[in-house]
Amino acid sequence: MRIDLHTHSNASDGTDTPAELVAIAAQAGLDVVALTDHDTTGGWAAAEAALPAGMTLIRGAEFSTGLLMPGGHRVSVHLLAYLFDPLDAAVVAEHRRLFDERLHRGLRIVDLMVADGIPISREQVLAISAGAPVGRPHIGRALVASGVVTSVNEAFERYLAGNSGYYVPKVDTDLTVAVRMIKAAGGVSVMAHSRSRSAARVLTPERIAEFAALGLDGIEVDHPDHAPADRAELAGLARDLDLITTGSSDYHGTNKTIRIGAERSDPDQLARIVDRATGIPVIGPAGALA
Q1: pLDDT for the residue numbered 290
Q2: Rounded average pLDDT over 168-172
């Protein structure tokens, strides 16, 4: 069984519609795909409506979360959530807050660029985001469309990285709050790409063990950003803590070069997710999870 548990549509910062994404997943030979857009469940209905025959859809989201460090600065980490109740009051309120936070932050970045003469606009970025939570990839696509850079990757390297003069932080959900909130909504939480970017500096084995004690369910082990040594370390840590392990592409359409299904999850681990979730069911043939 071929399973990818981390993909993004244009309901957040991917480039495919939810319907296109599930079609691409089927064309790639996947049996199970999880739609995990950033801080939104807005693509779920369209993905379900377009789900190809024989495919199973796992509805989820990737929560923007953070860890408050000594000295008062907050480090961004991401938390995948699967099969939680999208109508849970705390989830609805936090997604609304995060949507507003992303919008304010994204427009502030655009304003800083415009003030420096970079030829993009608020209207352009909002048109590209098309109602999705505004993210830096949307600004990157505006920079590509305006001829400032040739790719979204170049946009991040030159203009959108954390060390850029245009970088504006956002106030993400506290990681402890997010783990508990997902659990209360009947969902299953999995730490996303914990050995990439800033997360690698703060998600030590000791800290991951602390979150496992608070209710964290799993770790994303196989991810395009993880080196073989990272994968071995995380797999061992998951065994020690009895955590679920996943493998995922983190597919974003043309915003990233990684192809859907490039990393996959084990069916036994998906079965553990489904068995543990009490929020909502999977969509698709029951036999896909046997």
Answers
A1: 52
A2: 87
Cα(155)–Cα(161) distance, integer angstroms:
8
DSSP 8-state assignment for residue 223: -
Structural domains in the chain, sorted by start:
3-96+170-289 (3.20.20.140), 97-160 (1.10.150.650)
Q: What is the pLDDT of residue 285?
A: 87
For 77, list phi and psi in degrees, rounded to 5. -135, 160
Distance CA 188, CA 279 (A): 9
Q: For the residues 196-217, what does the mean pLDDT come to?
A: 92
Distance between first and last Cα of the chain: 10
Measured distance CA(67)–CA(76) in Å, rounded? 7
Please state the pTM of the whole predicted model. Answer: 0.89
What span, in angstroms and rounded, lies between the C-alpha atoms of 76 and 170?
Answer: 9
DSSP conformational letter for 289? G
Alpha-carbon gap, residue 279 to 258, rounded angstroms: 30
The sign of the torsion formed by the CA atoms of 26, 248, 183, 21 equals negative
For CA atoms 212, 224, 281, 15, the dihedral sign is: positive
**How far lies 255's CA from each of 11, 72, 224, in Å?**
14, 32, 14
The CA distance from 217 to 186, in Å, is 12
Report how far residue 57's alpha carbon sits from residue 60's, in angstroms, rounded to the nearest whole number.
Answer: 9
Q: Is the pLDDT of residue 183 over 90?
A: yes
Q: Read out DSSP for 135-195? A: -HHHHHHHHHHTTS-SSHHHHIIIIISTTSTT-----PEEHHHHHHHHHHTT-EEEE-STT
pLDDT, one tens digit per residue, over 218-230 is 999 999 999 999 9
